[in-house]
Write a structure and sequence with these properties.
Strand content: 5-15%
Order of helices and strands: EEHHHEEEEHHHHEE
Distance between the termini: 23 Å
Radius of gyration: 18 Å
Helix content: 40-55%
Number of strands: 8
Largest sheet: 4 strands, mixed
Strand order of the largest sheet: 1-5-4-2
Structural class: alpha+beta
Shape: globular
Number of domains: 1
Amino acid sequence: MVQLETDGLLPLRTALDAEHLQERFTATRAGLAVGTGLPVAEVQPRTAVSAAQVGLVSRFWSIALAAVALRDRVPDLSADRIWVDRSHRNPSPIAVSWDGQQGAGQRGVGHAVDGTTETVAALEALVVHGAVAAVTDACGEHGRTSANVLVSNAASSLLAAARVIGRQVPGRAEHLDRVARALLTVPFLAAGGSFRSSEDDRQAGDQFRRNGCCLYYRLPGHGLCPDCVLVRPGHPADTHH
């Protein structure tokens, strides 16, 4: 959920400092314990860090790709423009500050883009190296969780957002897929995974595979995701994903 008011929200930079981020990890861990019936002590801290990161990053991708699909615009999701809820909950409101410097005749807030190349460049500059990288790097530093896990989360969340929005705006699905695939080649996200062939699908490059596991499989009722690096003969993906 995106809102205009910032009441009760924290600037993203503040929310990502050591103290506030630890509060988010603690709240996320407690929420996972309630949702799975586990004692809090049995929810691994790294799993909570992974979930907290995905909870934020997936929302940033959704905001950005929805704007692309509906308006051919890329919002400025630089870390200094974002305000977030101080805890991990659903729905989790996010506010984006706007300086009002909108040119005459422009429709809506954001940077107008045309075509895949321009869209990818704007998303890389304003979203990847903005809020997505800020959250990912902070979770790695203060959550002591592998960069491989966190960058893979960011890459997988991008593809998931593109597919969900593509289903809602089917006329833009192919464009969003091209944009997402191109974004996965930029240096920050490329380490998160790649498209490749699989045993079940011989069309090379059609199956995305993460390079790191999100760690959700360690929770009751959560198996391996279809794009998990751990999926292999004898260790199949969870069909409920």
